Amino acid sequence: MNAGTLGGKTGSGDITLSGIGTVNVTGHIMTGTHLTAGGNGGSTTLDVFGTIDNGVVLAIATSGASNLKNDGTATSTAAISNNSTNQTLTIGSLGALTINAAESITSGTISMAGGTLTDSSGLTVGSGETLNGPGTVAAHRLISSHSREPFAN
């Protein structure tokens, strides 16, 4: 997508976009839209540029190595499931992701590539989880079951 708006809640229901590639939106990805990275069983990345409005469902497939990369500004009302070793959530160099629910991750990866991850409800990083790379993690409460923090803010 080169310009415009990817919107949801049309007369026929929500809009779902799943798979790999790049979504480059000049406007907004609106509430009611479902964005899912991967799903074809291979190693996949869905790279999203633009503004993702609060109420968009963000998901990462568990079949094959799947990566949801945010290179824009995104707000998620719900936690993003990241509980499989096949799942990666990447915050790009200009990305800013705010999660408005307690995020608890047990086996996946959060890869910081220079952007900002904010979670005012708290972020729990399980023993099988990886949180790595440069960037800013701003969480009301950061709980890690690692013996040391695997990242630097």
Folded structure, characterized:
This protein is mostly beta strands and 153 residues long. It has one domain (15-144). The protein is built from no helices and 16 strands. The protein has strands at 15-19, 21-29, 33-37, 44-52, 57-60, 66-70, 73-76, 87-91, 96-99, 103-105, 109-112, 116-119, 123-125, 130-132, 136-139, 142-144. Strands 2, 4, 6, 7, 8, 9, 11, 12, 14 and 15 form a 10-stranded parallel β-sheet that branches. Strands 1-3-5 form a 3-stranded parallel β-sheet, with no helix packed on it. The protein has a 3-stranded parallel β-sheet with strand order 10-13-16, with no helix packed on it.
Task: Spell out the blueprint of helices and strands.
Blueprint: E1 15-19, E2 21-29, E3 33-37, E4 44-52, E5 57-60, E6 66-70, E7 73-76, E8 87-91, E9 96-99, E10 103-105, E11 109-112, E12 116-119, E13 123-125, E14 130-132, E15 136-139, E16 142-144
Parallel strand pairs: 1-3, 2-4, 3-5, 4-6, 4-7, 6-8, 7-9, 8-11, 9-12, 10-13, 11-14, 12-15, 13-16
In short:
By secondary structure, the chain is mostly beta strands. Helix content is 0%, strand content 48%. It has one domain (15-144).
Number of helices: 0
Tally of individual domains: 1
Q: Strand tally, please?
A: 16
Spans of at least 5 consecutive residues with low confidence: 1-5, 7-13, 147-153
- Strand portion: over 45%
Radius of gyration: 15 Å
Mean pLDDT level = 80
| Element-level helix/strand string | EEEEEEEEEEEEEEEE
Quick one: biggest sheet? 10 strands, parallel
Portion in helices: under 10%
Shape: globular
Structural class: mainly beta
